[in-house]
Amino acid sequence: MWLKPSNLIYMSSKLVVGNWKMYPTLSDSLILASTFKRSLEDIQGVEVVLAPPTAWLVPIVESWRHKPQHVSLAAQNVWPNDQGAYTGEVSAYMLKNIVQYAIVGHSERRAYAGEDNDLVHQKMQACLQWGIKPILCVGENKKMIDAQGNFDDYQLSKVTEQLLEGIAAAKKDNFDKVTVAYEP
User: PANTHER family per the record (predicted)?
Assistant: First the structure.
């Protein structure tokens, strides 16, 4: 599948995403979320997305009685099936009323959990189905860089493959809901 520039939607809005990974405790997360909420109330022209650990999403939502319109929450991961015997996973269906965004295809998920482009594609579809805006992560991995020492045609082809297979999940009318994040 090839995308022509005329088929793409170019967005001029700014999006800043903070992925908290698996670091803060619940109490630290609540303090961080409160601090971000207060400090971001007067910011204009940029949407800020916070991606705390999944276990802290609901407590953060509950601690924010009113959040600034331009501050959103993201899930760090999402599972494509709505329900089933998927121990430890959280579906887009389960997250639909909690987050506005979900990170999919992150390099750590690809490296440590063995996630491939097909699974990323499924995650993208699930997010879009349930009204969650996917943040598609693409980029070369450390092994590629160590082996080549620089960004070459092979690495470019892998990044392009990740991008094309990921956004293939979005129909033309959903392109505006997809954010692409390049992870060098």
Answer: TRIOSEPHOSPHATE ISOMERASE
In single-letter form, the type of residue at position 73 comes to L
Give me the active site residues, please.
106, 183
148: enclosing H helix or E strand: helix 142-148
Q: Does 127 lie in the same domain as 84?
A: yes
Beta strands in the chain (DSSP E): 14-19, 46-51, 71-75, 101-104, 133-138, 179-182
Q: Could you read off the pLDDT of 4-46 as tens digits, one per residue?
A: 344 455 555 789 999 999 999 999 999 999 999 888 888 889 9
Strand pairing category for 71-75 and 101-104: parallel
- Which of 90-99, 114-123, 143-152 ranks highest by mean pLDDT? 90-99
Q: Are residues 98 and 136 in the same domain?
A: yes
| Residues 129, 174 contacting (CB under 8 angstroms) | no
Supply the range of the domain harboring residue 165.
Answer: 77-184
> Is 127 in the same domain as 59?
no
Higher pLDDT, 102 or 161: 102
